[in-house]
Amino acid sequence: MNLKKIIKRILREDKQLIPMIRRRISNYDLETQFLESLISTRDMFEYNKRRDETMTRSRFTNVVVSKMIDGIHYELHSTTPEDSQWYDNVYDSLKDYYKDRIDEYYDNLIEKILSEESKSKFFKRRIDIDDVEYILSVNADQVYHETESYEHFKFELTLRAVEALMWNDYELGWEDLPEQEEIEFVTEVSDILEDKIKKLYNTYNKR
Question: Which of 44, 150, 188, 198 is 20 to 30 A from 27, comparing alpha carbons?
Answer without folding.
Answer: 44
